[in-house]
Amino acid sequence: MPAKVHHIRLSAEERQALEKVSASNHKSAREKTRARILLLCDSNLPFEEGGSRNDTQVAKELTCSPNTVYALRRRAGEAGEHPATRVVVRQEQSKRVARKLDGAGEAHLVALVCSAPPNGFARWTLRLVRERLIELEIVDAIAKETIRQTLKKTRLSLG
Fold this sequence. Notes:
The protein is an all-alpha fold and 159 residues long. 53% of the residues lie in helices and 0% in strands. Helix 1 (12-23) packs antiparallel against helix 2 (29-41) and helix 2 (29-41) crosses helix 4. It starts with 11 loop residues before the first helix and ends in a 6-residue tail after the last helix.
């Protein structure tokens, strides 16, 4: 196996915080595993005291993949200062787009579709619903497909 590229050097405070996370009953299994990986990879601690192991040794001890250990070590090395707090906790997804219709918006949608259609129309169409939602300023813009999927999800039967 090649030499370590990213060395993990934990301060006493970081080590104590990671030990607390790994022993906690209120953290997820993934967070505990990440904390244990960082503790076993710590270069400031000798092998005999539970640190400074290579990726395959850590993977065997924690029954995870060596790629998991390598990826976490790389992320911790790239995190710079205080990797323990940044790498262990799951980060929010940056590319996630907020939903157009939240719970209140869905309630307005269902109430709108259950009401009588506008004059001159026998029933609500997706186009009419979209125009009315924009007119009532419930949403700025919305696709017909979003409305269709939301109505399908609510199992709304209009007849």
